[in-house]
Give the backbone structure.
Amino acid sequence: MRDYPMLEKINNYKDLKNLNKDEIEKLCEDIRSYIIDVTSLNGGHIGPSLGTVELTVALLMAFDPEKDKIVWDVGHQTYAYKILTDRKEQFRTLRQYKGISGFSKIKESKYDHFGTGHSSTSISAALGFRVGKDLKKDDAYTIAVIGDGAMTAGQAFEGLNNAGWLDPSRFIVILNDNQMSISPNVGAIYTYFNKIITKQVFQKPRQKLKEAINKIFGEQGVKIFRKIEEYTKGLFTPGLIFEELGFTYVGPIDGHSLFDLKQTLENIKQMRGPILLHVITQKGKGYKYAEENPTTFHGVSPFDKISGVFNKSSNLPTYSKVFGDALVELAEKDDKIVAITPAMKEGSGLVKFAEKFPDRFFDVGIAEQHAATFAGALALEGFKPVAAYYSTFLQRAYDQVIHDIALQELPVFFAIDRGGLVGDDGPTHHGVFDIAFLRPIPNMIIASPKDEQELRDLLYTGLNSKRPFALRYPRGTGYGVKMEGFNTIEIGSWEILDEGRDIAILAVGKYVYRALEAKKQLRLKGFNPTVVNARFIKPMDENLLNKLLKTHEFVITAEDGVLNGGFGSAVAEFVIDNGYSNKVLRFGIPDKFIEHGKVELLERDLGLDANSMVNKIEEFLKVKKAVLNTA
């Protein structure tokens, strides 16, 4: 901590009361430097967390997280919070294997009150805490800190609506607006206005007036008074929608004016009813490159902190880029193709599509459910909608996939990025459930490419299938195979890549090349398996599978998804349902949540690297042979 003298001087947030204003400002500088240094080495969500340093310090000066509940939304804004809540030294291990998480995590710290890896859950969680405390007669505060992006999701407004109805006190929602999406106006007039409306000299007469009106005119009179108050405030502030939902709106206020913010928080603590505080912050505050390129520096891989240049790990294209480029090629020839994404334009590789076809590109915000239904109706209008999701976020649209798309057999193409383990973001973002939750849905086709060219071909096939079609592919780079043109692949067809005998390895997606690698090692041990690219998870190639089961005693499946209900389960079900007695060995994700870390390390721990797979296959074959020989 020698590079951060003020940070070294304190143990945790409890020491903030011992610092003067100058020291607190220097502490904020140290925290920013520490965040920049660590994320430049480890990667992480640098932009959001640099923007919340003063907000974090102000919160920890006004509230005590040992008793008050603070829920951050999304949890990647919490780096300063982690540093000040007993994880100062551990912060160097951010997002590293067996280190601390990049998100709020209740198992990591008593100060992380609710896990928030996905967005827009904070208001619901904070309200649950508030009601629980009220039932226990606990007068501690509950606070939700929600980003303006997260406020675009339906669940946030469900929480606001319920809170407005319940009308709890000691319940505060802080809207961290770092994109100027609600109001661009911040300055002295707003800061002054907030100081006035939050002070007791304003609030006490206001409350007494409401009580007097209630006595004289009843509830109807109070409602009229509130409407007049809302109208008056609406003339000067952008918070009328929150007032209509039953909140007292305060803001906007400069989120980097730490001591004004602290005073506003102290004043708000004395107000009754639910409060919404609108805070304006700058994403990437204090780091030039993040300030100038907030989207690029939202979540980053390791970079050079002096130049702001990212460390390039590979010249191979990512699957996201392969998908995005292929979609542009197809859209140039087919004006019926449209692209939809729930706030994942950059991550899903759709930047080029958005630039080239702005009228056919729809970023609907963090609204996964809406995106799916929206795509379904576009399909009914004769278009070919491509709904691009991260696997982990498609979970949030499950009902729409079933009810609005599959049930009505609408030809929506789901491009599912980050299928499988994703690495440093951990269990909230590993895309390991999609095969298992999509497989039971009638009418749904599920495919996974072995490489870049097959991704192009399956995209082309799916867009022309006139059926609900899900294509899932991993995070990271491909193999550098030559990419040229587009080919139609027969739906439900597999391909034998390397024929052998006795043993059949049925591999999905990224595990196809791993199966070929495993075969090389197995041949040195005297085994010669047949390797099959099981590119269609549903429907399976039942003709080929029947032939393989009749000629291969041992069947091995490999996938980067959960074993429960996954591709291996589908094969095992087929074996049982059709009266076969083949021995089946399945490789995949076990029945537990997988922590964060480099994918290679996680796969090694799970026995999913090529060497571990070979050893387990060899043991499996020997044990089964021994059992057969003694039977």
In short: Confidence is low (pLDDT under 50) at residues 180-190. The two ends are 66 Å apart (CA to CA). DSSP finds 24 helices and 17 strands in the chain.
